[in-house]
Amino acid sequence: MRDVEVIGAAMLRMGKHLESTYAGLGSAPLLAALHSADVGRDDLEALFCGHSFGGMLAGQRIARELGLGGLPVTNVDNACSGGATALHLAVEAVRSGKHDVVAVVGVDQLTQFGGGTIPLVAEDWEVRQGMVMPAMYAMRAQRFLHEGRGTREDLASVSVKNRRHGALNPYAQFRKEVTVDDVLSSRPISDPLTLLQCCPTGDGAAALIVTAAGGATPGAPRVRIAASVLHSGQVTAGFRDMLWPEISASSARDAYAEAGFGPEDLDVIELHDAFSIAELVYYEALGLCERGGASEMLRSGVTALGGTQVVNPSGGLLAKGHPVGASGVAQAVEVFWQLTGQADARQVPGARRAMSHVTGGGITGLDHGACAIHLYEAVS
Amino acid sequence: MSITDQGAAATALEPYLDAPESIAALTVGADGATRLLGSECAACATRFFPRRHICFECAGTDVQDLPLAGAGTLYTWTTVRVSAAMAVPYALGYVDLDDGVRVLTHLDPDATHSIGQRVELQAVSEQGDGAPAWRFVGLSDEGGRSDA
After folding, report:
1. Cβ B48–A237 below 8 Å, yes or no?
2. Any CB–CB contact under 8 A between A116 and chain B?
3. Number of residue pairs across A and B with CB atoms under 8 Å?
4. What angle do CA A315, A193, A205 make, to 5 degrees?
5. What is the complex's ipTM, to 2 decimals?
6. Which stretches in chain A have pLDDT values below 50?
7. Entry pTM
8. Long-range CB contacts (< 8 A, 24+ apart) of A295-299?
9. Residue B148 CB-density burial (10 A; 0-12 exposed, 13-18 middle, 19+ buried)
10. What span, in angstroms and rounded, lies between the C-alpha atoms of B20 and B80?
């Protein structure tokens, strides 16, 4: 099995890009990633495109803009994990020796829905009963508060931290700092979650160039992929602990085993903070702290810029934005910049090892439908 | 007849009739009370809601209709104020039925709820906007429980 590296990365400033199509959104970072890797379009052997709402052939519509044809283009939907699933397929294709140089694009345009909650698949039983993603996370937050695992202020503090990070990131949709009071007094969305505890509606795209190790120009910035794990959720008709999403816990366990290092070795973590409660739940599921220790970890400042295990230095989904299929790739772009020392004002000094984690999808009886975790190592 | 009873070529395979609108949610229990209609696997005794055809636990297909427990404990809940699914506001909760099945249910949006509270099934007239014709309401004589 060959070692795999990311040698080029680019993303759009996330926001409401009302005058662009999926082709316009996706082709800009694809071209920029090729330039950053110093790779020509004709060197690409395959393209993997993750999206949830782009309709048929989104990847081909993006490739077309660059005059790219002939190569295999694979379109992937895996809800919030679609972009990371495309990366996973790219890593597998290079590891196996099938391809040497491939591209990954993640893209979605949520402004097409006008705003509010994303439309889930209506054939699902719980969706038909009225389930929406904020409600699912809100019910987790109610349990969190009920079990005395933290306070409403702890929930709000996740948004405060990630907005502070986002204020330093020119690629973030939200660049304004907020206070705990701002968060708690914002409009209620699904109790106890308020507007500033929910990721925004927005558009975005990100791209990566992935190669076999040794494929880059010597000395060029690159990052080694130490683990690439994709899981699906396990159904149960019975009782589940909503504060222990097994899909993220088992994905993380497999990723650490594949990489040969553990959560204590991570300097940078981009995790799936679609809602404030999510970040706290995932501290525990990903093994960043003991079960029950999430609020204490947040309060200690260790996960904020200046700390030793910085979570969501990009601003995360809460501040940077969460165009569903784009997010997994955008996280990898942030990690690439962090591990190659290109993250400017939000740079985690000396960052060597990192994780990206996305999970999502509302399906009856599952914590989530999909989870993808990647671990990365700086190449000196 | 289960799909394993027939030769592959004898009868053309038909899909399971599992569209939400074609699944009955309510039935009448042995005591004459309204109950949720679930299923039980004949092989491993796992129970389900809504009713289904294949057992999640053992993948067996001998799955029989079963009226489920009419009461349970509120595991968690929320009031939804923004939704692509139906008119807001509405209250949702997960109820852990006394026979081990967890059910997503509507709650009375005007009532006060607490985690651990005992609740029971209530049939309601069609609420329109796609909301179901049943929900769970608090058992007034038992009060909340703090140990859930």
Report:
1. yes
2. yes
3. 108
4. 35
5. 0.94
6. none
7. 0.95
8. A295/A149, A295/A150, A295/A151, A295/A154, A298/A154, A298/A157, A298/A158, A298/A161, A299/A154, A299/A157
9. middle
10. 21
